Amino acid sequence: MTEIENEYDPDSIEQKWRERWQEMGVYQYRDDEERPDYVIDTPPPYPTGNFHIGNSLGWCYMDFAARYHRLCGDDVLFPQGWDCHGLPTEVKVEENHDIHRTDVPREEFRELCIEHTESQIDAMYETMLDLGFSQDWSHEFRTMDPEYWGETQRSFVRMAEEGYVYRDDHPVNWCPRCETAIADAEVETDDRTGTLYYLTFSSASEEQRSSGSRTQSGDSEEQHTSGSRTQSGDSDAIEIATTRPELLAACVGIAVDPDDERYADRIGETFEVPLFEQEVELFADDEVDSTFGTGAVMVCTFGDKQDVTWWAEHDLDLRPVITESGHLAELAGEFEGLGVNEAKEEIAQALAAADVLNDRESIEQSVGICWRCDTPIEILSKDQWFVRVNQEEILETAREIEWIPEHMYARLEEWAEGMDWDWVISRQRVFATPIPAWFCEECGHIHTADEDALPVDPTETDPGHPCPECESTEWVGETDVMDTWMDSSITPLYVTGWPESSFESVQLREQGHDIIRTWAFYTILRTAALEDERPWDRALINGMVFGEDGHKMSKSKGNFVEPKEVISEHSADAFRQAIALGGQPGTDIQFQWKEVTSASRFLTKVWNITKFASNHFDADTPSIQDPAYRDADKWILIRCAEVADRVQEHMDAHRFDAALRELREFIWHDLADDYLELLKGRLYEGRPGERNAARHALYTALSASLRMLSPFAPFLTEEAYQTLPAGAESVHTETWPSLQTFDADAAQRGQLIVDVASAIRGWKSDAGMALNAELDRIELFVDRDGERPAIDTYDLSSAVNAPVYIETGRPNIELVPVGVDPDHSVIGPQFRDRAGAVVSALEATDPAELKAQIETNGEISVDVEDDTVVLDPEAVDILEEQRAASGEEVDVIELDEGTILIYS
Ligand SMILES: [Zn+2]
Ligand SMILES: [Zn+2]
Predict the structure, then answer these.
(1) Dihedral of CA 88/93/99/100: which sign?
(2) Where in the sequence does UniProt note compositional bias of the Polar residues kind (predicted)?
């Protein structure tokens, strides 16, 4: 029990607890057999050095869940990893040191990457502590550490044994700038304007040239209606349209729609590719869009994925013409060495010069680009490592997971069903998990590492035995490394101690919807393949954080907010509440400063409640025996129990927004506005037994409130909790409140007291009176079957500062006219210079007389200077007062449960 500071000072409180919690080990997973596990599969963020507001949304959700589950008695494992490997770091290191990765030995380059990554991690770690996240840092992992990537290698070896991993020469997406293969999930699309070129391919079929018997002969009408715009005079030529003339050297066929009448009898004919002169055959395929261009498309190895399909299905040649760095290769002849864009222009010029370029037009197209550098990707066929994608197994596993919100499953399903290639996992880079394999120099045998040799870098170490096929000892280590998703897709396995302990699904995965097709997809694939299990019971998906104007945050738009800015202006506790209240999980939320300021006001309120309450507590308060609770005490404890149930339901459903709203409403209104006001008299002036009951009930309700609020405002609740007597060492090692129950009648009586006190408080405030102003007396009429209800007026009486009498039935009240208020805006224009006299006459008349005239005649007549004038009822306002049967003036407030008479 510590003394509470007078002022709420979030800066010093948050700094203090940030450090102290670490020293105390409050958030450590105990691996306690007695308690249920609650394991979170925390995203390992890419160490960019900047933990931004978008990150903080997901981490707030995880932290709310982690803290809530600790209160519920679960043994919570909230680990934190770092997804270190990858291209962005390599690029950054190349920039920072002004080198190309091949300028230094692999190991040296790797060291530079590690050094860079460590500094980035430190910065993000600091922000996580500032925000009050409760990870167990003894379970921190970094995918670049050998103890982690050794497990990534183990998962690779095991999947290879099970036939999930294979090596094949298959076309893959290739970024010519990054010079590496990339997976489908790393290809983004960009809409841009390109050029569609119309080209003539001359006929190469001998018989056609000689026969001249073709229907599309000469320059007949038919040639034009057929859609061909051949200008070369070769009647048997064909016109194709392409956006990529630079791939002409890679052309291996021409495809048309089998239902396209223009080409119906030409299937099987051969044509010569302009400039490059290879002969290609015309074939039909249902996938051709006959409305595009001329309806005849050139098939290259490879312009796009469709080319790959045709190439495989129609058994076409392979003519690779693009190099790994995006230049034209030897097959391009005189154009060899040109970059793709240059080649496009030069080849178009050459086509024009050869008189085979018939036309060009602009076209809107969707281009696949590298996620990292926006360079248009190429499709190259190379020896690569692949992971087999078993769509059925993945979807079956995904359906065993509870998706929150539910529709996020559909996103995964859509992605999985649309996948047509296996997952290419090899990358031609350095800073990543080495693929643990060697090639026999003699016979080409591929050896995958034995598990007990892991972790291993095959560029540094040999397998340690000769080739089983040919006995050669000359091995070449694989230099390809793994896609970083191979690292991060084993996180649930890694954090649960795989492979030592057998894997069971963890309780929660939290992640953004933007990485469903990568992180969620790959993790499901991997645990299904390795352990035949779902990775998690629940997947909680978060949206994005938008700026106050509802748009994506950007520095140039001025709607950009960083967590540290909010912390320094207000507090982490306020920031966390603004995030929670932004909306329900799964939706995009809008960051609102006004939520931060209202959260700050609420926190000050909680501070003040605690300050007031702690003045009345001593070390014995929690253990007061058989407190003689009054109705108000029972009421707050009943309300508190109801709120605890409801908040628990919301927390179980991850509706953090609803849970926090419920809590704030309870603490602010029920506890502070209503209960504390009813209680003050007893706390200050009650007899010892009465005071003890009040203190005990207040202690119970406040302690419960702080515990329930602790997931949202961990710092303030901790500081406040420390000022209460006899608690746990931290509010965060406390339990979820479980409160005494009372009969429903007590609840009803308590509610009535609260409502009456609140109504009178409102009445005093409207009347401009001090809230503690003394009143003559209060009569409370409650109609309960003629019986006088046993209402406890003790607290009520002191709260309203008046004696309170309970009566049954309806009060006998009448409205008595006591004055008249003439309306000058009606009387003035009507009576002009006599208006003053009319007003005087009205004021001189008995108001009861005026009221009677209005009721019986519908008008008023008064004598004015020997004359009788008649006025409409609108000309006056009759002022009335309520009078009790005794004739005393009284104010009346109607409530649902009864009627209050105030004698003042
Ligand atoms: Zn790239
Ligand atoms: Zn061999």
Answers:
(1) negative
(2) 225-234
Residue 270 CB-density burial (10 A; 0-12 exposed, 13-18 middle, 19+ buried): middle
β-pairing, 80-82 vs 545-546, is unpaired
CA distance 251 to 303: 9
Question: What are the structure tokens assigned to 516, written together?
Answer: 């469903």
- Is 555 marked as binding a ligand? yes
C-alpha 175/C-alpha 191 separation (Å) is 18
Nearest ligand to residue 179 Cα: 1
Q: Please give the average per-residue pLDDT across 311-339, as a whole number.
A: 95
Task: Tell the residue number behind the tokens 């978008």, with chain if given.
Answer: 54
For the CA of 428, the nearest ligand: 1
Contact at 8 Å (CB) between 382 and 172? yes
CA 190 / ligand 1 centre spacing (Å): 14
Cα 425 from chain centre = 28
DSSP states of 330-380 as a string?
A: GGGGGGTT-BHHHHHHHHHHHHHHTT-EEEEEEEEEEEEEETTT-PBPEEE
Residues 6+ apart with CB under 8 A from 158: 451, 530
179 CA to middle of ligand 1, Å? 7
Query: Which tokens hold the place of 343?
Result: 């080649």
Residue 772 CB contacts under 8 Å (≥ 6 apart), including other chains: 801
Sign of torsion, CA 717 719 720 721? positive
Edge-to-edge strands, sheet with 446-448 = 446-448, 437-440, 475-477
Residue 494 neighbours by CB under 8 Å, 6+ apart: 81, 141, 148, 151
User: pLDDT digit string (tens) for 8-40?
Assistant: 999 999 999 999 999 999 999 999 999 999 999
Q: How far is the CA of 195 from the centre of ligand 1 (A)?
A: 23
- Which numbered ligand comes closest to the C-alpha of 445? 2
How far is Cα 719 from Cα 24, in angstroms, rounded to an integer?
A: 15
Q: How far apart are CA 301 and CA 307, in angstroms?
A: 7
SS (H, E, C) 569-610: HCCHHHHHHHHHCCCCCCCCEECCHHHHHHHHHHHHHHHHHH
Q: How far is the CA of 88 from the centre of ligand 1 (A)?
A: 10
Angstrom distance (rounded) from CA 395 to CA 409: 9
Instruction: Using alpha carbons only, give the angle 492, 498, 502 rounded to the nearest 5 degrees.
Output: 105
- Per-residue pLDDT tens over the stretch 212-229: 444 444 444 433 334 444
Distance 125 CA to ligand 1 centre (A): 29
Residue 426 CA, ligand 1 centroid: distance in Å: 15
**Who contacts 762 (Cβ-Cβ below 8 Å, separation ≥6)?**
none
Contact 351, 247 (CB under 8 A): no
Q: Specify the 3-state DSSP secondary structure of 383.
A: strand
Q: Any idea what DSSP says for residue 552?
A: B
Q: Which pTM does this prediction carry?
A: 0.87
Task: Please classify residue 660 by burial: count the beta carbons closer than 10 Å to its beta carbon, then call 0-12 exposed, 13-18 middle and 19+ buried.
Answer: buried
Contact (CB, 8 A) for 547 and 448? no
What is the amino acid identity at position 812? N
Distance in angstroms (rounded) separating the CA atoms of residues 153 and 395: 25
The answer to whether 186 and 373 are in contact (CB under 8 A) is: no
Which of 136, 141, 140, 139 minimizes the C-alpha distance to 26?
136
Predicted pLDDT of residue 227: 42
**What's the angle, vertex CA 695, arms to CA 690 and CA 696, rounded to 5?**
100
CA of 159 to the centre of ligand 2 (A): 23
pLDDT tens by residue, 393-450: 999 999 999 999 999 999 999 999 998 899 999 999 999 999 999 999 999 999 999 9
The model's pLDDT over 761-819, given as tens digits with 9 standing for 90+, comes to 999 999 999 999 999 999 999 977 767 778 889 999 999 999 999 998 888 888 889 89
Instruction: For residue 438, give the ligand nearest its CA.
Output: 2
Tokens read off for 683 = 């706390």
Query: In this structure, is the dihedral angle defined by the CA atoms of residues 96, 99, 100 and 102, taken in order, positive or negative?
Result: negative
For residue 763, the tally of other CB atoms under 10 A from its CB is: 17
